[in-house]
Design goal:
The complex is a heterodimer. By secondary structure, chain A is α/β, with parallel strands linked by helices. Chain A contains four helices and seven strands, in the order ααββαβαββββ. Chain A has two domains: 73 residues, Fe-S cluster assembly (FSCA) (GMP Synthetase, Chain A, domain 3); 49 residues, no CATH class. In chain A, the strands form two sheets. In chain A, strands 4-7-6-5 form a four-stranded mixed β-sheet. Chain A has a three-stranded mixed β-sheet with strand order 1-2-3. Chain B is globular, with a radius of gyration of 20 Å. Chain B starts with 5 loop residues before the first helix and ends in a 6-residue tail after the last helix. The chains are: A alpha/beta, B mainly alpha. At the A-B interface, helix 3 and strand 3 of A face helix 3, helix 6, helix 7 and helix 10 of B.
Chain lengths: 163, 294
Amino acid sequence: MTKAFEIASAVRDPELPVLTLADLGVLREVSEEDGRVVVTITPTYSGCPAIDEMGADLRRSLRSAGFAEVEVRLSLSPAWTTDWISAEGRAKLAAAGIAPPSRIGPSAAGPVPLNLVPPSRQVACPQCGSLNTSEISRFGSTACKALRRCHACAEPFEHVKEI
Amino acid sequence: MSFDNAYESLLGHEDAHWAFGTGFSEPLSGVNREFPAGVDRDALAAYCLMLGDDALIFSQRLSEWCSRAPELEEDIALANIALDLLGQARMLLTRAGEVLGKDEDALAYLRDEREFRNVHLAEIDCGPGPGGDFGTTIARLLVFSSWRLALFSRLRGSADPVLAAVAEKGLKELAYHRDHAAQWTVRLGDGTDESHRRMQAGLERVWPFVDELFATHPVEAALTGVAVDPASLRSEVDGVLTAVLSAAGLTRPADTKAARVAGMAGRDGVHTEAMGYLLAEMQHLHRSLPGAVW
């Protein structure tokens, strides 16, 4: 199972290919049941279109490594949070020019507070490191990324938004 | 993967690489889906259809804005919100289908208008076509996401493990949707005379459909501990809407109610004129070419 876990961990995210599924924190468990490898992953967003492709990539990688029977399962709870992106994953994102998410901690019970202005999180520009950046759009090229700009070096960049 | 031939990278896999929706047989694969003891399964299926249809139909409406929004970023934002709701709809329709013996596609594409259980707010035509407006769509998104967020916040405690998990996951998405709508409402309401006028007009257009959101349906009343009683959400949602409208300098419209038909509305399968046109567009491909995939 160690080998199966290593192979599953190395499969890359289809939409953020600098990250492995393990870096992204969507790989929840790799186990063996009746001679089958069972891989459990969790979607980042309910409508994440990459989830099917992650399943297909996991099956393909494990089969080509000799695991004949592979089952990929989804787990919805506990819900994925960007806090599960590993330290290594955050470093890889920054190196690829994508600002990693801040840590947000567990979500509280009860009503969700309203934000009438975008939260003033300090997001460092992955190009020049300046904290003088602002949000252009909360929704970017994929569900998990926002679009920002840096006022110091004038470069636009993507930011994995906190969820 | 080989890129020697452009088609190979698209077609040379066990699952067609770009045909999303082909990898898992259905969206609840592997999720704990035992039915809680003593629950009325028919009522649970009806409830999942209500919440699933709200998301599916509003998702269809939002996707109509893609390429028609005032700016490119907003095309992307509304399409992303539509995608989140579509994901919630897939899980909820699949849960309903476990009781009804149908899959998500059969429920989305092969039901007729009277079988849909969404609230009217999700289906009315707010544009981008004639008679609609971006301000109206933002007004609808504000009301819908504020209401659904409050609902999902309570649904996390549902005795049904699937509903609780869908709610926990969807809650974070809905928080982004509501913030997006609230920030646009403030920007438009507190913007120019023209943007203020159109945002206020949008609120007036959607307000008659607000009351239905909080009307307790017999299905919800029958599912104690599983469903959320929407009447219990009213004060929380009112508080949020009041805060947003006040920051935006907008006036809360008078509480008028859209007429019901013999006391029935969306939750009973009685819909507005807009619904038939919406379903015709959403369903025609699947009905003309059964089983079509891409």
